[in-house]
Specification:
The structure is a single chain. With about 425 residues, the chain is of the alpha/beta class. It is about 50% helix and about 15% strand. It folds into 2 domains: about 10-140 and about 295-350, Periplasmic binding protein-like II (D-Maltodextrin-Binding Protein, domain 2); about 140-295 and about 370-415, D-Maltodextrin-Binding Protein, domain 2. A 5-stranded mixed β-sheet has the order 4-3-5-15-8, sandwiched between helices. A 4-stranded mixed β-sheet has the order 11-12-10-13, with helices on both faces. The longest helix has 16 residues, at about 35-50. Bound molecules: beta-D-glucopyranose. Beta-D-glucopyranose (BGC) binds next to loops. Beta-D-glucopyranose binds near residues 37, 63 and 139.
Amino acid sequence: MRLFGRTMTAAAVLVMTTSISFAEDVEVLHWWTSGGEAAALNVLKDNLGSAGTGWVDMPVAGGGGEAAMTALRARVTAGDAPTAVQMLGFDILDWAGEGALADLTATATAEGWDKVVPAALQKFSTADGSWVAAPVNVHSTNWVWINKAALDATGLAAPTTWDELVAVLDKMKEAGITPLAHGGQPWQEATVFDGIVLGMGGGLYQKAFVDLDPAALGGPEMAMAFDHLIKLRTYVDDNFSGRDWNLASAMVINGEAGMQMMGDWAKGEFLKAGKVPGTDFVCIRFPGTQGSVTFNSDQFAMFNQTDPAAQEAQVAMAKAIMDPVFQSAFNVVKGSVPARTDVSNEAFDDCGKKGMADLAEANTAGTLFGSMAHGHAAPASVKNATYDVITAAFNGEYADGAAAAAALAEAVAAAQ
Ligand code: BGC
């Protein structure tokens, strides 16, 4: 055989065939590229490795996963879909609707996933009664991460209301640090806005972001939410534009900034930096949202493959993801909480224990909402239209909150 201009022996061909045969490997497209995310990813890689499945990495940097989803579309269009893909909420349902996803129902049924995965997650793991994704975690977005020393220096308690929050931010400003660490990217502004709108009440969140009710989207409560967002803009530093979320986390970790409003993947950065909850940093629910949770769940969807060995590797990966021991180990590092209800909170730190308790409480109380910012409230077209208005509002493009709310109602109507 001649290959690359060289004559190969039969033995060499055999070796080459073996080494390029990725039959037992999974190629995984994901956006876990920050320090904390990579540490969590390694737990998954190791778990798969010990089950005999190899890993071919396809990282696409960009928090929130927009860039990853663009890369995915290009791969699928080229007829070269990756084996497994990290995906959120409505994106999973969209791909399932296109018939692109492998059916995991046989594995799910054999392993009893339906008994341990909360219904709110199953809504996105299943399509037309079939399992199309395996959930690895539950994150929530209505959190604030505060540098403990900076909070202590204000002489104030951790804020539980909007007014208390503003008082703490003002004191931090007086003390000469950047009160709010923020990265100026649409998904990050949307993540902050998740917390603000939830703080106006779960009723508004549901009506506006899930039901897409024009009156709620354009009404006085939404106007006030935008006024709050515009106010928060006054607490960020001059270099916020385009900053990655993990660099904003680093500002809080280093004491350069007072707090960050971000999902609990931020905790992964604090832990990676050796910081301890309660000692070095404080985790609180976004002021006014204790008792309610806006969640997003990272799930792995498997793209249709014809090679039986590749299909086998997909099943192995799905099983590895759903293993309860793995779900504890992974989520302790990632900052999220398990996607199964039967995993003990024992290994989790105080913020993780709080995350698990808050999730269970919200689930029972009917105050658990899919995150608008992370694709669990509405399909991508609506999400993107919402992002545009939120970012424009943050950057002062509307006269006031009422004008921003009116623009939001219009944009969401046009996007449907
Ligand atoms: C994902 C997290 C990820 C974060 C930042 C979110 O959409 O759910 O897993 O850490 O984006 O990249």
